[in-house]
């Protein structure tokens, strides 16, 4: 009793056992399970429930290493049962046919040096309908259109004064002028020869 009073005052620490999970949300008429791991073997495990609504601390049951159980007052044997392993260091409390009256914080406990040491507690909430899991929506990734530059566009972007444009053009014009000069010179010589022959 001293250790229990110190526990609720926040002074009783426990290094003898660990309890999981911290929170359970279960649906009405379903079942659940609470785990208790002991640091070393004990004669058995006690289970308690703290009801915030009724403000009472109830003794549920005690299960020894032989699998025999002792139940508290007005505790249904069909609702609560304890399962252990051969090492006697791991126990689990099974609760079936859940209802709103099962809401509370459940503690596993061991006795040592005439004191009871409690676990960290598991808060059980029983609801008629379980909430739907939140859907994580991701914003669509905006993809920028990739611009492909063709050769014609590249040439047009360089502008009309680009060297790639006017150098070939100037070379072509020069070749055309040279060919015209040669043709004119030959025509002039042919014309002179014809005039000499006629006269």
TrEMBL record:
One of its GO terms (cellular component) is membrane. The chain crosses the membrane at residues 164-184. Keywords: Adaptive immunity, Disulfide bond, Glycoprotein, Immunity, Immunoglobulin domain, Membrane, Signal, Transmembrane, Transmembrane helix. Gene3D superfamilies: Immunoglobulins (2.60.40.10). The gene is Cd8b. Residues 1-26 form the signal peptide. It holds the Pfam family V-set. InterPro entries: CD8B (IPR042414), Ig-like_dom (IPR007110), Ig-like_dom_sf (IPR036179), Ig-like_fold (IPR013783), Ig_sub (IPR003599), Ig_V-set (IPR013106). The keyword Transmembrane applies. It comes from the Eukaryota. Residues 21-113 form the Ig-like domain. It is found in: Membrane. This is CD8B protein. GO terms for molecular function: coreceptor activity; MHC class I protein binding. Its main location: membrane.
